């Protein structure tokens, strides 16, 4: 036979998901005492925030800039000579990295009809431009023909009587992208605006503890070298403390407040706040 069960203390299923107040474990303070901490941005930190916003604007503007593309000369060769009838001259280049490279050939011819046959032997075969008349301007895309030896032939073999005076300038160009304006703005945004902004925020953001003892309000702010700056009822103490202090506060100055340094890490110093010998909080 089953025994009877008392269901008076068993909650309905609707209450199962509702947390009870007793489930929370509150911080127990002495009567009339409250302790809290918050981050506070002072003027220096706000300047840092403004700098970071400015850096973001400059960074976005730099990202919208279009790079400038241009052909930059890499190397060149030039010479002048006389090509006799039924002869030819040549000049060779060895190209190891033809990507985005162009060979430009400018030729001036005098004699006869001021003409000359030009052809180029490339790693992928011959490119014959035929008989050309001065002034001659040619461009060869080296990317198309690849790595290897390029020989430019200046051919006067079709002339049986007339010599030709030839002046040649051969220039190799590479296609480049100019991002100097963009890079300069990135440098300004990061190193001259963003980094100082972060430093200023680090210098101007401080953790502030507020200790309320009855009607007295004590604010403690961490400053340089781990020292503490105190303000009692909005009256700022002139001296920054780096040692333990005790003073009376509260109604009729009946409570004893103690603030003393404690080690919080290998080389870090924090501060412990006690009221009537009971710890109520720490900073940071």
Strand order of the largest sheet: 1-10-11-12-13
**Largest sheet descriptor:** 5 strands, antiparallel
Number of strands: 17
Helix count from the secondary structure assignment:
3
Q: Provide mean pLDDT, rounded.
A: 87
Q: Residue ranges: pLDDT <50 for 5 or more in a row? A: 1-5, 21-26
Order of helices and strands: EHEEEEEEHEEHEEEEEEEE
The percent of residues in helical segments reads 10-25%
Radius of gyration: 43 Å
Distance between the termini: 63 Å
- Measured by DSSP, the beta-strand proportion falls in over 45%
InterPro entries: GOLD_dom_sf
Keywords: Membrane, Transmembrane, Transmembrane helix
Overall description:
Residues 1-5 and 21-26 have low confidence and may be disordered. The relative contact order is 0.18. It contains 3 helices and 17 strands. With 284 residues, it is α+β, with helices and mostly antiparallel strands. It is rod-shaped and about 125 Å long. The strands form 4 sheets. Strands 1-10-11-12-13 form a 5-stranded antiparallel beta sheet. Strands 2-9-4-7 form a 4-stranded antiparallel beta sheet. Helices cover 18% and strands 49% of the residues. The chain has helices at 43-64, 142-145, 180-204, and strands at residues 33-41, 68-83, 88-95, 101-110, 115-122, 125-133, 136-141, 148-155, 164-178, 205-213, 216-222, 228-232, 235-236, 245-249, 255-263, 269-275, 278-283. Helix 1 (43-64) runs antiparallel to helix 3. It has 2 domains: 27-62 and 183-283, no CATH class; 68-177, Sandwich (Jelly Rolls), CATH 2.60.120. Strand 14 and strand 15 form a beta hairpin. InterPro entries: GOLD_dom_sf.
């Amino acid at each position: 036979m089953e025994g009877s069960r008392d269901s008076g203390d068993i909650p309905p299923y609707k209450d199962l998901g509702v947390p009870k107040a007793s489930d929370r474990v509150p911080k127990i303070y002495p009567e009339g005492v409250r302790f809290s901490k918050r981050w506070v941005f002072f003027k220096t930190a706000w300047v840092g925030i403004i700098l970071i916003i400015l850096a973001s604007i400059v960074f976005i503007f730099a990202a919208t800039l279009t790079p400038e593309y241009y052909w930059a000369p890499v190397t060149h060769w030039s010479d002048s000579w006389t090509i006799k009838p039924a002869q030819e001259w040549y000049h060779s280049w060895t190209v190891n990295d033809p990507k985005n490279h162009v060979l430009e050939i400018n030729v001036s011819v005098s004699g006869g009809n001021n003409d000359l046959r030009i052809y180029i032997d490339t790693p992928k075969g011959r490119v014959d431009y035929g008989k050309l008349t001065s002034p001659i301007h040619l461009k060869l895309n080296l990317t198309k023909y690849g790595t290897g030896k390029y020989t430019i032939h200046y051919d006067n073999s079709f002339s049986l009587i007339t010599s030709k005076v030839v002046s040649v300038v051969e220039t190799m160009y590479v296609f480049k992208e100019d991002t100097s304006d963009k890079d300069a703005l990135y440098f300004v945004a990061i190193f001259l605006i963003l980094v100082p902004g972060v430093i200023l925020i680090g210098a101007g953001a401080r953790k502030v503890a507020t200790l309320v003892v009855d009607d007295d309000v004590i604010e403690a702010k961490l400053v340089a070298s781990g020292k503490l700056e105190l303000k009692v009822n909005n009256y700022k103490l002139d001296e920054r403390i780096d040692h333990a202090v005790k003073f009376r506060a509260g109604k009729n100055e009946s409570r004893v407040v103690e603030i003393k340094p404690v080690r919080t890490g290998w080389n870090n110093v924090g501060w412990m706040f006690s009221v009537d010998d009971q710890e109520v909080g720490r900073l940071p």
